[in-house]
Write a structure and sequence with these properties.
Helix content is about 40%, strand content about 15%. By secondary structure, the chain is α/β, with parallel strands linked by helices. The chain has one domain (about 15-280): TIM Barrel. Helix 2 runs parallel beside helix 4 and helix 7 packs parallel to helix 9 (about 225-240). Bound molecules: S-adenosylmethionine (SAM) and iron/sulfur cluster.
Length: about 290
């Protein structure tokens, strides 16, 4: 059977995917807002264990169409390991349409373009990357481990390998002081990357993280829903994308928007203008949780 180790996270769009923990934890594990894998030490699991889980699933259920390789940055595992796992998945279920994983900037710097291209041919066609911000001050404050130039450079490697990128931006990460710069610089970085998917989440202090501690000390400059809407508007205004799907539908968002860019850009900005002009009647969702 499949025995998941610790808490398992996956992107919203992998809700119907088979989740396999190819790796445990996150090789970086330092981002100040992230509590996901703090209790785990990063390691790559044994292929034999994963083969057993795949065989067990195969006996119990019909073949999955999508597989998500957990945990936090499975792309950090050696390409030979990932290649063998992908071969086993494909041999067991030739009907699989997509395998995807989280890819930290650090993992994208380690895997060569040739490796990523080869893994893509074996089915690993999509990475989820937390860009979080394009502002160097915000990136340094959240200890992402890369600045904006390096973020663009590593994302470009995935593009060069032909792998689809789904990237995340953390609204509110710069507080009020840096809201405008965070929005504008994030748009610049996203424009340089031209990802297939871009989504926004709202930076949420979670217990056990440095962001939580600074929030407890009253140092985290929370944006209210209206300021978050203004920040999102500034971000959308500055996006110049050729063909990307945008979503702000993660549970942490107060406003759920979705559309294709550039086609729906003006309509989404108009929605935000209406919200900002008349916040009392805005369709804000309730605050989701103070702790994930
Ligand atoms: C597993 S990581 C993404 C992949 C990879 N590890 C990386 O950082 O590039 C999950 C994503 O969830 C989001 N996230 C994590 N903790 C969060 C929090 N406290 N508030 C809002 N979003 C959060 C961030 O956008 C983060 O990039
Ligand atoms: S955001 Fe990603 S890279 Fe940063 S600690 Fe969390 S899982 Fe690791």
């Amino acid at each position: 059977m499949i025995q998941y180790q610790g808490q398992v996270f996956r992107p919203p769009s992998e809700g119907n995917s088979l989740i396999l923990q190819a790796t445990l934890g996150c090789s970086w594990n330092k981002c100040t807002f992230c509590a996901m894998y703090r209790d785990k030490k990063f390691r790559v699991r044994k292929l034999e264990e994963l083969y057993k889980e795949i065989d067990w699933y195969d006996e119990q259920f019909s073949p999955p169409t999508k597989v998500f390789l957990a945990d936090g940055d499975a792309l950090m595992a050696k390409a030979s390991f990932l290649g063998e796992l992908l071969d086993y998945l494909h041999n067991t279920w030739p009907e699989i349409q997509r395998v995807s994983c989280y890819a930290s900037p650090q993992a994208l710097a380690v895997r060569t373009v040739e490796e990523m291209r080869l893994l893509k041919e074996k089915g690993l066609t999509q990475y989820y990357l937390g860009v979080e911000s394009g502002n160097d001050h915000c990136l340094a404050a959240m200890e992402k481990g890369v600045d904006s130039a390096e973020m663009i450079r590593v994302a470009q490697r995935a593009n060069d390998a032909g792998v689809r990128l789904s990237v995340m931006i953390l609204l509110g990460m710069g507080g009020f002081a840096l809201s405008r710069e965070h929005a504008q610089d994030s748009a610049k970085v996203i424009n340089a990357i031209q990802p297939r998917f871009v989504s926004t989440l709202v930076a949420t202090p979670v217990a056990g993280t440095p962001l939580w501690d600074s929030d407890q000390r009253g140092e985290f400059d929370h944006l209210d829903p209206i300021a978050l809407a203004a920040e999102l508007r500034e971000f959308l205004m500055n996006l110049d994308l050729k063909a990307s799907v945008f979503r702000s539908n993660h549970a942490s968002n107060y406003l759920a928007l979705a559309g294709t860019l550039p086609k729906d850009q003006a309509a989404m900005i108009a929605t935000l203008d209406r919200v900002l002009a008349n916040p009392d009647n805005a369709p804000f969702r309730p605050e989701w949780m103070r702790a994930l």
